[in-house]
Amino acid sequence: MFDSLSDRLGSIFDGLKRRGSLKESDVSAAMREVRIALLEADVALPVVKDFIKHVQKRAVGAEVLKSVTPGQQVIKIVNDELVAMLGSDTSTINIIGVPPTAILMVGLQGSGKTTTTAKIAKRLTEKDKKNVLMASLDVRRPAAQEQLKILGEQIGVKTLPIIQGQMPVDIANRAMNAARLQGIDVVLLDTAGRLHLDQALMAELIAVRDATKPIETLLVADSLTGQDAVNVAKEFDAQIGITGVALTRMDGDGRGGAALSMRAVTGKPIKLAGTGEKLDALEDFHPERVASRILGMGDVVSLVEKAAETIDQEDAEKMAKKMAKGEFDLNDLSTQLQQMSKMGGMKSILGMLPGMGKLKGAMGSSGMDDKMFKRQEAIISSMTPKERLKPKMINASRKKRIAAGAGMGVPEVNKLLKMHMQMAKMMKKMGKMGKGGRMPQMPGMPGMGGPGGMPGMGGGMPPGFDKLLK
After folding, report:
1. C-alpha pair distances (Å), 458 with each of 298, 313, 340, 428
2. In the chain, what is the straight-line distance between the N-terminal and C-terminal CA atoms, in Å?
């Protein structure tokens, strides 16, 4: 998300930081570039105009132009204004009320309403310990109700039994009545969408809204649709009255203009961001963290939270003990690869680390991506337990057998073994440093010197990592 915008802004601000002092004309020239970058990223024109006006007003003041680090001051102002544009405070889903509380999911067809409904249900069940019922009110799209039923079975959440021929308002009333009888806390109502806004859709949604009195009406919008998503948000808010936005496919949009425009145009908070196809790929939308990612400052807080959620503490402690002894075998490498996958993969992790944006590009062009790590996992899986514990015993004939088992060539096996050898050396050094008290161990934190870290990146860039990228 925001990759192209982040790259553009990064190059603009690099130019400002290289100058010892700034003139008003320098700031104006930079703001013209920022304006173009935002427009190319699909940010709505009125939003861009307001943003540039606010930044320029603060950036040409005496406190910036005469400061010791004027370039950094301008970046801070841009960061503050980005946060203000995105909504300043984090806003979470409201489920406080007399149960059963209803959450109405609205949006156009294909925006990801049904999947987002299931993601929210999973989240409320697992994190908030709520008893949830999902009901599909979509009687138009073929198999829409069956799709929600299947998703419910996958995540262990109840769905309202399907009665053919029943109309949306009747289904909604039946869902609320069933929830009262079954002691349900939250009812998620997945409504029908259209390929475009029409009065029939709005009339149906208004009838459902009036019948169920939802505590939340969430607009599900596809972040890839750019300006259209902003126009849709305005219409839904004007006619139905939305309480917040859930943006889908945030992992796939290099521009991100919809996210930047949505809050400013509707005045309603972006509450959730879908970051992948998996049913647990749903995050709270934190404006200050998103602004930091856009400006290449990383998002270490989210990285720590993600690590805490996905990494088993017991495994981390075992790894810490092994590291202290300078031990690191191929089982440990496999564990780290799996942990990276759970945390969203290499690109997701690098996007949260400060100053790592350019490395993401280098990885992409070199072919060093998450698919490569899956291939490495396949190679390790083709080894015997003894070979994983003692990689030095893997000779030429064993390499051929392992390569054949993984469906790859021997050079791939050699690359993996070389990478493991470099990491094992580094882990040994880190273990010694940890004993000397010179480097704190942070279990489960990639890039921070602890177990569960990113392969090849624990405690900094490993020797020869730059060569691996070539």
Report:
1. 17, 17, 12, 12
2. 25
* 414 — pLDDT class (breaks 50, 70, 90): very high
SS3 call for 143: coil
C-alpha 196/C-alpha 118 separation (Å) is 23
pLDDT for residue 161: 94
Nearest by Cα to 315 from 443, 145, 123, 198: 443
Max CA distance (Å), the chain: 72
Beta bridge partners of 135: 189
In one letter, which amino acid is 129? K
pLDDT digits (tens, 9 = 90+) for 43-76: 888 888 998 988 888 877 666 666 656 777 778 8
Model confidence over 98-143: pLDDT tens digits? Answer: 999 999 999 988 888 999 999 999 999 999 999 999 999 999 888 8
Q: Report the candidate in 57, 65, 7, 69 with the shortest Cα–Cα distance to residue 31.
A: 57
Domains along the chain with CATH numbers? 3-86 (1.20.120.140), 101-297 (3.40.50.300), 302-468 (1.10.260.30)
Strand partners for 105: 190, 218
Strand 270-274 versus strand 282-284 pairing type: antiparallel
Tens digit of pLDDT for each residue in 373-388?
A: 788 889 999 999 999 9
Distance CA 120, CA 430 (A): 41
- 145-177 residue pLDDT tens: 999 999 999 999 999 999 988 999 999 999 999
Distance, in Å, from the CA atom of 57 to the CA atom of 80, rounded to the nearest integer, reads 13
Q: Are 190 and 246 in contact (CB under 8 A)?
A: no
Find, among 91, 113, 293, the residue nearest to 194 by Cα: 113
Nearest to 454 by CA among 362, 349, 377, 356: 349
The token duo for 15 is 């130019």
Instruction: Record the pTM.
Output: 0.66
* The two three-digit tokens of residue 191, written as one number: 């409504």
Q: Average the pLDDT over 77-89 and give the result.
A: 82
Which residue has tokens 């029939």? Answer: 200
**Are residues 270 and 286 in contact, defined by beta-carbon separation less than 8 angstroms?**
no
Q: Which two tokens stand for residue 282?
A: 């749903």
Residue 102 is given by DSSP the state: E
